[in-house]
Amino acid sequence: MASFLVSFAALTAIIAARYLMTSALIHALVRRRPDAPRFSGKAIRHELTLSLASSAIYALPAAIVVEAWKAGHTRIYTDPTALPWIWLPISALIYLLIQDTHYYWVHRLMHDRRLFRWLHAGHHRSPQPTAYASFAFDLTEATLVAWVLPLLTFLIPIHVGVVLFLLIAMTATATLNHCGVEIFPQSFVRGPIGGWLITATHHGVHHRRLQSNFGLHFRLWDRLMGTDVMPPVAPSAPARDQPIA
Questions:
Q1: Which of 57, 82, 192, 243 is most buried, most CB within 10 Å of its CB?
Q2: Which helix H or strand E contains 158, and what residues bound it?
């Protein structure tokens, strides 16, 4: 029990620190852009409160996995030659697809008018999310989604390096998707690869319309279920002569 409590405390601190550093960095960069919206300080404080509380909820199943891994009870492995190298990207994709499928349907359920207030309203307190909203879940929502990836480590082999990569990548993409400004060019966002991925353009529509764009990583389920909505392409602004500094 002592070892578990240490793991839980450490993971809570790590998850919170990872969130704070990533969100603060991206928010600071976005605020410098001329197309950045006006962000509400009250909304940011609300997002910070929910996110820091959610950190402990996410740390609980993570601590269970860490303790089980140390005892040899998970499918996490450390030897990169234990399985063919091609399994590294395949396992990452499998984990993301399963998580995305689970989140799509849970997300749609949380937007049911009878459940929204209790499960998901905190995340939508402001129609203009900020980078700090990336982890701002109601505690009930966090409880529903925090266990998916930890559970998979007991079922599907995955290298410890892939686990770390997924955690970092998911933190970065979630933050970018909520930052209020699209950082990728529209040629990518609407292209053959980016057109299947969730970006700030796609997820921003969800925060404005609520009843569309429920995916987490991919637009696959949104397209299959008819809930995929993209804003029209803005006309290009005429070129202007730039003043010489």
A1: 57
A2: strand 158-159
More confident site: 166 or 40: 166
Collect all residues with Cβ–Cβ distance below 8 Å to 157 and sequence separation of at least 6.
75, 76, 77, 83, 87, 91
User: Which of 130, 154, 107, 153 has the alpha carbon at shortest distance from 50?
Assistant: 130
| Cβ 230 vs Cβ 203: under 8 Å | no
Q: How many CB atoms lie within 10 A of CB 72?
A: 7
- CB-CB contact of 219 with 228 (8 Å): yes
**Residue 101 neighbours by CB under 8 Å, 6+ apart:** 221
Which of 212, 238, 216 minimizes the C-alpha distance to 226?
A: 212
Phi, psi of 217 (to 5 degrees): -115, -40
Sign (positive or negative) of CA dihedral 195, 201, 203, 209: negative
Q: What whole-number percentage of the chain has pLDDT above 90?
A: 81
- As a whole number, the mean pLDDT across the chain is 91
Q: Assess contact for 130 and 39: CB atoms under 8 A.
A: yes
Candidates 116, 121, 133; CA nearest to 175 is: 133
Return the sign of the alpha-carbon dihedral for residues 140, 39, 19, 1.
Answer: negative
Between the alpha carbon of residue 118 and those of residues 115, 208, 213, the distances in Å are 5, 19, 20
Rounded-to-integer distance, Cα 42 and Cα 220, Å: 34
Asked if 86 and 23 count as a contact pair (C-beta separation under 8 A), the reply is no
